[in-house]
Structures are given as structure tokens and as C-alpha cells.
Prior knowledge:
Blueprint: E1 2-9, E2 15-22, E3 28-33, H1 44-52, E4 55-60, H2 78-95, E5 101-106, H3 108-120, E6 126-130, H4 142-151, E7 159-161, H5 173-181, E8 188-190, H6 191-206, E9 215-220, H7 228-237, E10 242-247, H8 260-272
Amino acid sequence: xxxSTFSWKTRDQVQIYGKHWRAENxxxxxxxxxxxxxxxxxxxxxxxxxxxKGIVIIGNDRRGHGRSEGKRGHCQQFExxxxxxxxxxxxxxxxxxxxxxxxxxHSMGGNIVLNYLIKERPQLxxxxxxxxxxxxxxxxxxxxxxxxxxxxxxxPSFTQSNDLxxxxxSTDPAEVERYEEDNLIHDQVTFATGISMIEAAKRLExxxxxxxxxxxxxxxxxxxxxxxxxxxxxxxxxxxxxxxKIWEGLYHEIHNxxxxxxxxxxxxxxxxxxx
Length: 275
């Protein structure tokens, strides 16, 4: 596995850290969008598997996450997240102009991928979702959400904990321990980020129509952080090619479950049909 890093500066001068996992004789590229509070190196094992199958992985730490700059957990406007996806896709195209390209988003990253597909209508080989943030397992009370909408106008970068129950990320205690010991993971989220993500999820709850690319939407059947019912409901409203796969008995991070290889094989099979 050949690894390298890269970086770029956003329009508001935030330095973004990127990771490039190369494959010998590549046949496709996957642009990976991680979840809230984490970072791209948590997907090293996923990249290793797909590299061995001839799939290149490219990803970045979002602003306010991992090795990228920015206040932890803060993004002034949701559009900045979409711009990062656009830059990542451009990077993939610059390196591999003739290879089919896929988007892969987990949790918050899945929400961002879906909103990017709806807004930008990119020409891609497909998109893969893992536990996409559509329907929170423990949503804020409506009054608190309304207070947050007012507060974001005054103190948008005010930080609070995301109140994540880390025991719900995986059924594997070793994965939970690794999560807790990872110094690059944080539980911070600002008013601006939290409100924008809740509103982005609401847009997905109401979306009904066609996506520009084939979609594989996966979810852990026992996910208590983001409910699988959101993914299932979205799958029924999409009028274009979509496959919903619920992995029974699994928690939020299906790629960090004991049967992760089975999941990777499933994703690879779905991709190969579209390469």
C-alpha cells in the first residue's frame, strides 16, 4: 500500500489535510468523507482492503477535525463542507482522469455526500453511505433547537459536547477502547455546525426524487446514534437506482465491526458492477 499526504487551503484560508492511499494497477477511485469528531486515518484498514483490490482511496480531515486546521467541531456554514467534497473530487480527477470515481460517506459524511449529490449533481460511478446522518437517535428537543437557531446568529462558534455515547459506535469493545484512546478524536461541536447539520438532515427527510448516481445506502440494524429508519425511509423516496442494506445486529460504525471484511466485500461487489 503506497500512502502519501497532501493539503490545500480553503477560500477562507483554512489548511486542510488530505490522505492518498494508492493502488497498483488501479481500476477505480473512492473519495472518502468521514464522520463527526473523527479523522481520515481511522479508515486505514478500509483503504488497505480496497487497495489490495485495485481501488484507490482519497480522503481528508474536514476543517476542525484531525490534522486539519480550524476550531474543533466548527464550520461557519454548511456550504464549506460541500466545497471540501468538490475539491477532493477535483483532486481525484487530476490524479486519475480516466477512472470511475465513487463517493463514500460515513455518518455526518453520509449526510454531506447526499446533500452534495442533490445540490451539485456530479457525474460519478456511484455513491456509498454508511450510517448516514438523517435521523438522530437522540435528537434535541424542539425548544432547544429553536434556541440554537437564535444563538447561532450571536455566538456561532460557541462549543459544546456532542454527547456521543462511545459504547454505541461498535459492538466490539476493542474498537470502543481504540476510539477513546485516539488523541485526534474530539467530542466538540459548535452552534453553527450543529444547527447546520440538523437542517441538512431535515432536507434529507423531505427529499424525494432522483439522484444523479447509483446509491448504496448501508446502516447498522442496531445503530442507536443514527437510526436506520432514516436510511430505509430515504431509500423508498429515491426514484433512481438505490440499494438499501441493513446489517442486522451491528452498531453505528459498520466498518469497525467484527465482520467488517464481509461488509467490505459487499461494497466491492456493488462497485465492481458499476466499474
